[in-house]
Design goal:
Helix content is 81%, strand content 3%. The protein has 4 helices and 2 strands. Helix 2 runs parallel beside helix 4 and helix 3 runs antiparallel to helix 4. A two-stranded antiparallel ribbon has the order 1-2. The model has no long low-confidence stretch (mean pLDDT 90).
């Protein structure tokens, strides 16, 4: 149906992580600003996101890059991420929505968005590096 070569799949994965990270980071900073959070709360939340990237999301990105590298031919576009990653994405969306619906949830939702956004944005560097390597190697094989 709609199949893409590995470098394009990797580019899409990196772009999705980056755009989602930017959107969530912006949303979190906007809410943090309107809620008048202390600067140290915002900084601590970003540090938690960076730690999450370092200990969890970097590993997910590396596995995803390695998985996409194994495709010899074009693959279906939903293969941008493994099923487990799609499930994690879905869980994060649901948690964010549930937090938003709770009383005083806007503030918690903002902190959650800030943490997840900073983590996604930081971890996206691995996807971009994977794309660069795939793009470079596919050029060399032509």
């Amino acid at each position: 149906m709609f199949k893409l070569p590995p470098p394009i799949l990797q580019f899409c994965a990196a772009l999705i992580w980056t755009l989602a990270g930017v959107k969530l980071l912006y949303r979190g900073l906007t809410i943090a600003g309107s809620a008048n959070f202390a600067w140290w709360v915002v900084a601590l939340t970003v540090l938690v996101g960076l730690a999450k990237a370092f200990f969890i999301l970097d590993k997910v990105c590396r596995k995803n890059v390695e998985r996409i590298k194994t495709y010899e031919n074009k693959a279906f576009f939903l293969h941008i991420f493994a099923l487990r990653t799609w499930l994690i994405i879905g869980a994060m969306i649901i948690i964010g929505r549930l937090l938003h619906m709770c009383p005083a949830g806007e503030e918690w939702s903002g902190l959650f968005s800030l943490s997840v956004g900073s983590g996604l944005l930081f971890a996206s560097r691995i996807s971009w590096k994977g794309w660069w390597v795939l793009k470079s190697s596919s050029r060399g094989s032509k």
